[in-house]
């Protein structure tokens, strides 16, 4: 604290010295030229007494002007430089102490560069806060979800070590371990994607493209899955429907919705895809004839880790629809669901279409 005060005093008197020498030089030079020309043109001879008095008055003026300039510049620097620097330093100290909720306010009248630095600082802290939330969410929300597949892997790995196992049983246990490992991988992948979308500022990379073409490509990616279950696929796609959006983000939406429709539809059932226009919107409907959901479940189905149908809990981790909802919000769309138990579900996504 004392060192800081000493540094401020030194800075003040150093600045005063600079102003004093500068003003003294300018006034002395000006006065010298003035007296030289005045003596030459008027023929008046200045005595030592006259010059000494003038020098004393000049010195007083220089001292006073230097002091005024120093005070004015000190106040200016305090308002335009020291205040924003102090705010930034205080914010940085809070971050060092573990507080990632810090957001620094702009300083009115400060130099433009400091407010730009404050903007970048705030953005950086929001990004760091997102990473921290990712870590805490992963620990608190996913830990219980990790236990089941890890227990399966551990138990069946132990069973595989039994020398008397038949070849069929060994293959069956290996398939069980592979399935649990795949579910574990999907869980981690989805939670990382979801937390990145939730806690970081995402700017969609928009481009104009044919929505019907993208929907068909995503649906064809599940051809093996629907053929294996013997599902009927019904499509009704309006031609020439274009949207200006981020195709990579929207592909997450379609892939999750198609995956759920196929996953929860019994063999021999039907999965439908419709694309139509409604005024200035493109409307996508993805339907299925699966088990359906209750109204209570529908009210919570876009929440993380919510699984209303516990009989299907082993087929998912409750993250896919939360991921879908977040992406739709980012691209400025809307999503809703209509469903009834035993009658299937219809997910409707509305996006702004291009002219």
Cα separation of the termini: 65 Å
- Radius of gyration from the CA trace? 37 Å
CATH topology of the largest domain: Heat Shock Protein 90
Number of strands: 7
Note the main sheet: 5 strands, mixed
User: What number is the mean pLDDT?
Assistant: 78
Strand content: 5-15%
Just name the CATH architecture of the largest domain: 2-Layer Sandwich
Which structural category fits the helices and strands?
alpha+beta
Helix tally equals 9
Q: Segments where pLDDT lies below 50 for 5+ residues? A: 309-317
Top-tier CATH class of the largest domain: Alpha Beta
Give the strand line-up of the largest sheet: 2-4-5-7-6
Net shape: elongated
Secondary-structure element string? HHHHEHHEEHEEHHEE
* Domains, number: 3
**Helix share of residues?**
55-70%
What would CATH call the homologous superfamily of the largest domain?
Answer: Histidine kinase-like ATPase, C-terminal domain
Characterize the quaternary organization of these chains.
single chain
């Amino acid at each position: 604290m004392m060192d800081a005060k000493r540094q401020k005093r030194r800075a003040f008197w150093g600045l005063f010295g600079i102003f004093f020498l500068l003003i003294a030089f300018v006034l002395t030079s000006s006065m010298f030229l003035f007296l030289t020309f005045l003596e030459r043109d008027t023929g008046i001879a200045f005595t030592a007494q006259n010059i000494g008095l003038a020098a004393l008055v000049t010195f007083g003026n220089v001292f006073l002007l230097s002091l005024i300039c120093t005070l004015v510049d000190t106040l200016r620097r305090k308002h335009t430089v020291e205040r924003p620097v102090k705010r930034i330093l205080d914010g940085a100290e809070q971050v060092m102490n573990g507080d990632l909720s810090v957001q620094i306010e702009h300083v009115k009248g400060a130099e433009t560069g400091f407010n730009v630095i404050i903007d970048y600082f705030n953005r950086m802290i929001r990004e760091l806060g997102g990473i921290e939330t990712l870590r805490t969410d992963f620990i608190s929300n996913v830990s219980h979800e990790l236990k089941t597949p890890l227990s399966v892997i551990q138990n069946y790995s132990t069973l595989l070590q039994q020398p008397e196992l038949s070849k069929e049983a060994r293959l069956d246990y290996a398939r069980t371990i592979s399935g649990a490992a795949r579910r574990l991988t999907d869980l981690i992948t989805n939670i990382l994607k979801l937390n990145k979308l939730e806690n970081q500022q995402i700017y969609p990379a928009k481009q104009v493209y044919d929505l019907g073409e993208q929907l068909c490509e995503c649906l064809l990616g599940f051809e093996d899955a629907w053929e294996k279950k013997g599902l009927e696929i019904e499509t009704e796609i309006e031609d020439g429907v274009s949207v200006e959006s981020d195709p990579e983000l929207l592909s997450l939406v379609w892939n999750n919705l198609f995956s759920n429709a196929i996953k929860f539809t019994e063999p021999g059932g039907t999965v439908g895809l419709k694309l139509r226009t409604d005024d200035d919107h493109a409307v996508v409907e993805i339907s299925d004839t699966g088990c359906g959901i209750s109204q209570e479940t529908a009210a919570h189905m876009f929440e993380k880790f919510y699984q209303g149908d516990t009989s299907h809990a082993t087929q998912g981790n409750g993250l896919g629809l939360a991921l879908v909802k977040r992406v739709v919000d980012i691209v400025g769309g809307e999503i809703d669901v209509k469903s009834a138990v035993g009658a299937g579900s219809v997910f409707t996504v509305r996006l702004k279409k291009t002219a």
